[in-house]
Design goal:
Elements lengths: L1 E6 L5 H9 L3 E6 L4 E3 L4 E3 L2 H9 L3 E2 L7 H9 L4 E5 L7 H4 L6 E5 L11 H7 L4 E8 L9 E8 L6 H25 L20 H4 L7 H11 L5 E5 L2 E10 L15 E4 L8 E4 L4 E9 L5 E2 H5 L12
Parallel strand pairs: 1-2, 1-6, 2-5, 6-7
Antiparallel strand pairs: 3-4, 7-8, 8-9, 10-11, 11-14, 12-13, 13-14, 14-15
């Protein structure tokens, strides 16, 4: 099948590689323009573009996927189907309809649950125990198209968004190949979504990632795991912002004899990387086992504590 592939981040790469491995003809790749990234802010191609260039696939990088010139460019590729995986823009009807068989999307939730840009993060944030992949036909409304295929997957009790994204990217690639096989056999029965059951997973921002110590320890732990690795849950400490990772809900005896308002550092263990710093929540406390201070690399909290680091009684805002 002649496929036009749309995708940008690392999450989309396994699906592109799976299409190539299964012998589908990827006639072109549409990805976001090269952007500054990393500490040096060097302009870099997207992970999907890097694979496309390695494979000799034509690459299109419009600022906006619209307009007569862009439509002419993708029509010239004569795709039979568009496959979209975390591309980063909402596509208009005239774009979706270019391929003879339309456009399908790989989405990292069990739709209609968690429509939107950040379903993996919001699944962890909400405390869901189950998520998955949905292959859907695309319409102009966000993630509202008919369901073609779904695969469920449990979320690990201590799993971070980074870890879950890696697993779901591979599961999504497999699910897409299964869906294409069913489409070619005429065995797909599209199922309309029930809009009344829809929930949403909006794009993450600084406020979403600002640690809310007013929740209980389990909620704070979910927030830290949901924000890992980007954007990274953060709190203000003294004159800087510190990103916090790898939480563990503390046992009651861990905080024995320690008291403090939410956000207070109760204990520090510079020689114990399995725990690190104990920070009070509204109910209970969490161990923060990794940190990324401003301008520094991510490291174990114990390592940081042996330098400057937190001290008991410090307050994180």
């Amino acid at each position: 099948m002649r496929i036009l592939f749309w995708g940008t981040p690392e999450f989309a790469v396994p699906t592109l590689r799976a299409l190539l491995g299964e012998g589908h003809e990827v006639v072109g790749v549409v990805t976001q323009p090269d952007r500054p990234a990393g500490r040096g802010r060097l302009v870099r191609p997207s992970p999907v573009k890097r694979v496309a260039v390695e494979e000799g696939i034509p690459v299109l990088q419009p600022e906006r996927a619209r307009g007569d010139e862009f439509l002419a460019a993708i029509r010239a590729l004569a795709p039979e189907l568009s496959v979209v995986v975390a591309y980063g823009q909402i596509l208009r009807r005239e774009v979706l309809d270019v391929p003879a068989q339309g456009s399908i999307n790989v989405h990292a939730s069990l739709l209609p649950e968690l429509r939107g840009a950040a379903p993996i993060n919001h699944a962890i944030l909400a405390g869901h125990e189950l998520t998955g992949i949905t292959i859907m036909g695309m319409v102009e409304a966000m993630d509202a198209g008919p369901i073609l295929h779904q695969v469920s997957e449990p979320i690990g009790a201590e799993e971070t968004a980074t870890e879950l994204a890696v697993r779901l990217s591979e599961i999504g690639a497999e699910a897409l190949i299964e869906a294409l096989a069913m489409i070619e056999l005429g065995a797909v029965e599209p199922r309309l979504q029930d809009d009344a059951l829809a929930t949403f997973a909006p794009r993450l921002n600084r406020e979403t990632a600002h640690v809310d110590w007013s929740g209980d320890a389990a909620a704070v732990g979910r927030q830290l795991r949901a924000m890992d690795e980007l954007p990274g849950a953060w709190a203000r400490w003294q004159d800087q912002e510190v990103k916090l990772f790898r939480p563990a809900v503390a046992e009651a005896h861990d905080a024995h004899g320690c008291t403090g308002e939410p956000g207070t550092v109760l204990r520090v263990l510079p020689n114990d990387p399995s725990r690190g710093a104990l920070i009070a929540c509204a109910d209970g406390a969490v161990w923060v086992r990794e940190v990324k201070p401003e301008g520094k690399r991510r490291m174990t909290t114990a390592e940081w504590l042996r330098g400057r680091g937190f001290a008991p009684g410090d307050r994180l805002g």
